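Hmm, how's this folded?
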Amino acid sequence: MINNKSYKKTIKKKPKFNKWIKTLMFFYSLTPWMVSFLIMLSIMLGVGMVATPFIVKDLTEVAINKNNNFDTQDLIVLVSVLASLVISRVILKLATGLIGRKMGIIIEVIARKMVIDKAYKLPISYYDKHNNGEFYSRVIQDPRSIFALTFNFITENLLIIIGITFGLFYAFDNSWHIGVGILGVYILGIILTLLVGKKMVKSWSIAKKEYAELGKLTNSQLTAISEIKVNDSYSFESKKFIEVSNRQQKAKSRTITFVSIYSSISLLIALAVSVGITIIAGVELYYKKLDVPTFSAFVSIGSMLIMPITRISSLFFQLTDSIASIKRFNKLMKEKEEVFLDKEFQMSKGKIEFKNVFFKYKYESKSIQVLNDFSLVIKPNQKIAFVGKSGIGKSTILKLILGLYPIQKGEILIDGQNISKVNISQVRKSISYIQQSGIIFSSSIKENIIYNKQNVTQEMLDQVSKDALIDDLIKRKDNGWDEFVGPSGSQLSGGQKQRISIARNLIKNNKIILLDEATSALDNKTEKIIQMNFDKKFKNSTVVTVAHRISTIIDSDVIILLGKNGLSIEKGSYKELIAKKGEFYKLEKKEFDF
């Protein structure tokens, strides 16, 4: 369950997302009491770990002096202490695991929520350049890596620091030869780690990038599965999948190579320290520079240090993977967001004005001009339609009215208010936008129509279902209004999707209606009935239509045949344009599908 207090803190105070360590510390600040408790438990666990050599030393002393002043009570006490130490370490390990993982889960959920929130705030232009499959890895994989790091970073680091610090301190205090030997091996290990680690971090980043590419391709292929089957292009798509998979496998194999090398280095260091301590301590014992109990303590320390050193290896693997994830997370968090101003927008009459608008967008490395000094006035309650060749900018005009793309120059006004200077969210709420694809959510028919609309009565639902001609569909379904439509409406036909989308917007009853080929998937009879219901429902609304079929715009007040850069080739009512016998007349007679 998400921690609401923690999440509110992310809204109030966010890091700049420049350095991975700052981002990590920011996440720790969201669960301060858990972090504090985890640190305390980890220190206690570390103290329990380093206490073992002292117990071993004392036991050795008791064993050596068993014929002189042997005290059974001392032996019982030492054994009891050792047993208690083992039990306490198990309990502390369990406690750190439970608290650390719970903390990590909270942070993972918050990180995922931050990614989703960011997704809603990003402009549409971002999604024009990024595939949904890539975003999936950001939503699922990256927060999961952050979770693993937040837990391990505290516990593992503290155990490593306590273990190695104690080992060095005890060594220098009892035998500077052993201390120098341990320190020398550590320094060598650090140098090797830096050499291999730099390449490993780079390798992890490449592997994650290729994983994202694999996700993009998989998402694309699954989305187009029906098209692949119809065209019998499985072999073609399979070849592409294998190529991307091979690149991902190559990147991951390279990473695994570095991981294997580093694992071997860590094991070599651990064994070198353990065996080295035993050999040097044995030599000093032989020359009577150490006593037997101290020698036993050193042997125990050598065994104890194997764990912290090997933990460095596992932590470093986690660190390299998680750093790559945090860097991708940071990069996403720094993406430029849409600007939502505080100035309120008020819809009144529904007048739309384009004043000397210039708009262009970038495609790959090219800059494509769509509108060049485009001006237009759409009067309140006017029914206006745009026709023209594909790619000429018809749908773009609707998206500009919604403020989905920023214009480079000029103004777009709604009821005299510049939409770039008011709260664009309020602008969008005041406009109904019905797209050709008929966007459907993975829920029931009823939830799709009510979507984010409050105080909807059954009477209202019944009316819009009749107006959008989905009442028969609802009656045919076993669960009626509560029928689940499948992922993205997979259980519906294209026409049914459009009709549900139309019903969703009919229930809004907004002053401005934008129709982007909203009835393209309907047959002529259904389209005509819905068009009549539209005209009745929105007789006091401004309706802007983008059409490929001229039959859908015959009753429009004004039809504009668009040319390049938003140039109006012809403009007038259907009767006026037909009477002119110009370009529109020619296209209409040829029944040209734009």
Q: What stands out?
A: The two ends are 51 Å apart (CA to CA). The first strand starts at residue 352 and ends at 363. The CA atoms of residues 303 and 453 lie 66 Å apart.
